């Protein structure tokens, strides 16, 4: 048993000053079988602590239905076994480039602008969630013999709101439920953020990527006493689909880290190891500069983050540069760098043998069809991650007029009388060719990830403003949703994707096998495919998209097995080639 405390100038462990050298590693972005290796990599880099967020939406997919909340406890046990302290950031909002910033879609649909405020119904939901979550943290606090030394209150709240009573109530709730270790907040080093996001009597920390002395000077204007800490040292950055891969030069990042430590401060590397946003959990941002109110910028599946430990768990040049800096602050020699996990023994092509059209997939695995005067949102259909087919009739006879989708979020593949008519998005929401009546129109709409940061957090998905033919709204809209989770059911997928492959590449669910010799970490390439999702042995790898910059999907070695492995690909746009064409077949390669 030990006591961890916040002193006037330092963190104190049993009264002795200590410096926290922490690294962010999200347990939910790393296959559980690989936690031990990644935590060992943190130790070898020179860190003494690991930090993780907790995504509420991953663990409570529906109100009152909880899913593997104990995963956090298992991760904290793994951290203790690795010889690391732990910092837990349970939100309830986490950002993290994660779907809806970690808030359940059903919660933000219910709460609207009252989310992240002291609203009674919202706080009741938070209290119920924390009642499930905190029992995984409380017995693992350092004063109980565990690794947890600090717990965060909310997350960068000063970037969003100014409800001081909300933060005060969250603090009280955590204390009531048994959190005894120090609490803290984290915000950008700007006056309005620190004013809006900090709590009297609770340690305030700051997040930044450079100019440590300036950032800490700002913090000191607000908090003259207390240990200095950069809770998020942004040593890399994340990528958006259709954008450039973000890279930060190792030497530049190492010098910024050195400046933090020269200030006498503690630090948390964000990210030490980013991992992967498996299963379509990647969020999205809004462009438009500081207001974050511009075009949607969906985040890629990889959360490599240009971190010192890359997506595959390998040390990078940045790792070695950080290790050199951190070694100067270590109490003894650093541990040896762990050997990398086993890699795939040999390149293996995926043989696709069966298929089902999207209509058949929706019929077998989708939710119930609804019919009403206006298009329902994803939230109203109970779809968190996935797609919705909207169907409407253009009455006739009538002359051709423009067909417009108002408030489209995010992408729609449109069919008129069974023929593909185009792909629409927020920036191009009108079909190029006018539509005459009578006509049958179908729109397959996909969510590209809910906004995880800024004032448009919690905005709904789907067709949110209606369908227009010229200036006339089209009513009597039928809708049916397909949740991505439905495709985790191996047996159902086998039954559905059982037809012979089509002659031409079309949208649909493709099923096949890949024979592995020497199971280990791999990457899956999909040449000639456009946009969709992949599963291997029922494990959801995430979204692929030819828009780049990500060109392959990470397949953790524990997902694969010797011999035959099942693969299915849900292609949404229809430019995939026939699976028998060897040049266009998916292929597994060693990392």
- Helix content class: 10-25%
The biggest beta sheet reads:
8 strands, parallel, barrel
Strand content: 25-35%
CATH topology of the largest domain: TIM Barrel
Low-confidence blocks of residues: none
Q: Any idea of the CATH class of the largest domain?
A: Alpha Beta
Number of strands: 31
* C-alpha geometry: globular
- Counting helices, strands and paired strands, the structural category is alpha+beta
> What is the chains' assembly state?
single chain
Question: What is the rounded distance between the termini?
Answer: 42 Å
Strand arrangement, major sheet: 4-5-6-7-8-9-10-11
CATH architecture assignment of the largest domain: Alpha-Beta Barrel
CATH superfamily name of the largest domain? Glycosidases
Helix run count:
13
Integer-rounded radius of gyration: 25 Å
Relevant terms:
591 residues, TIM Barrel, Jelly Rolls, 3 domains, six-stranded antiparallel sheet, 31 strands
Structure description:
- With 591 residues, the chain is of the alpha+beta class.
- It folds into 3 domains: 4-327, Glycosidases (TIM Barrel, Alpha-Beta Barrel), CATH 3.20.20; 348-355 and 499-590, Jelly Rolls, CATH 2.60.120.260; 359-484, Jelly Rolls, CATH 2.60.120.260.
- The strands form 7 sheets. It has an 8-stranded parallel barrel, surrounded by 5 helices. A 6-stranded antiparallel beta sheet has the order 16-24-17-21-19-20, covered by helices on one side. A 5-stranded antiparallel beta sheet has the order 15-25-30-27-28.
- Helix 9 (250-262) packs parallel to helix 10.
- Belongs to the glycosyl hydrolase 35 family.
- It is an enzyme of class 3 (hydrolase).
- InterPro entries: B-gal_1-like (IPR026283), BetaGal1-like_ABD1 (IPR048912), BetaGal_gal-bd (IPR048913), Galactose-bd-like_sf (IPR008979), GH (IPR017853), Gly_Hdrlase_35_cat (IPR031330), Glyco_hydro_35_CS (IPR019801), Glycoside_Hdrlase_35 (IPR001944).
- This is Beta-galactosidase.
- Residues 507-565 form the Beta-galactosidase galactose-binding domain.
